[in-house]
Write a structure and sequence with these properties.
This is DUF2846 domain-containing protein. The protein is an alpha/beta fold and 192 residues long. The protein has 3 helices and 10 strands; from the N terminus they run αβββββββββαβα. The chain has a domain of 126 residues: Immunoglobulin-like. Helices cover 26% and strands 33% of the residues. β8 and β9 form a beta hairpin.
Length: 192
């Protein structure tokens, strides 16, 4: 009997040690957030970051974003888009669709040599109206200060660079035209 208790106690101690070690290593393995540093901007240009933090609400919906009336990209979940623009007043807006609300355009006067941050806010509420849509999908563009934006981008988003040059504008129009095929699974295939 004594030998059996000793073996059981020894096994219990070894198992407890292994479990405790695994538990501590799992707890200490927190994912570190890498710091986000905005790119340097040329003195004669402005740099605009448009980002959408990761959220479960409306995760599958990606409204298009127009800059000065021209389509640029889709605001997908975890998006971080870097855009170089000329100084001056620019209007950022969503492509109007009836299933979204609060699609108010954001007008920003950009100063040369400066960096600006615009967040895509997204929320989902219950629609109390007697329409077919049970939910009200809300997307809103908000200008954010640098410190808050750096923290939010570091926590959520991967960097994608896009510049507004003549070549980029041509590729944007190429995307709009064509046979309407899209690999974007979050968009309605019949909306083209």
């Amino acid at each position: 009997m004594q030998g059996t208790n000793f073996v059981l106690n020894k096994s219990f101690v070894i198992f407890s040690f292994i479990f405790f070690t695994a538990y501590l290593s799992a707890c200490s393995n927190n994912s570190e957030v890498t710091a986000f540093t905005p790119a340097a901007v040329k003195p004669e240009k402005t740099l605009v970051y448009i980002y959408r933090p990761t959220e479960a609400s409306n995760a599958l919906y990606s409204p298009g974003i127009n800059i000065d009336g021209e389509f640029n990209f889709y605001a997908k979940n975890s998006l971080n888009m870097q855009i170089t623009l000329a100084p001056g007043k620019h209007i950022f807006e969503f492509q109007a669709e009836k299933i979204y609300s609060e699609l108010t355009p954001l007008s920003v006067k950009l100063t040369a040599g400066q960096t600006y941050f615009i967040r895509v806010n997204s929320s989902l509420t219950i629609n109390n109206a007697s329409t077919y849509e049970p939910y009200l999908r809300i997307f809103k563009l908000t200008q954010v200060d640098k410190q808050q934006a750096k923290q939010e981008i570091a926590e959520c988003c991967v960097v994608k660079a896009k510049k507004t040059t003549k070549k980029t504008k041509e590729t944007s129009t190429d995307k709009k035209s064509g046979d309407g095929f899209s690999v974007d699974k979050t968009q309605n295939p019949f909306s083209h």
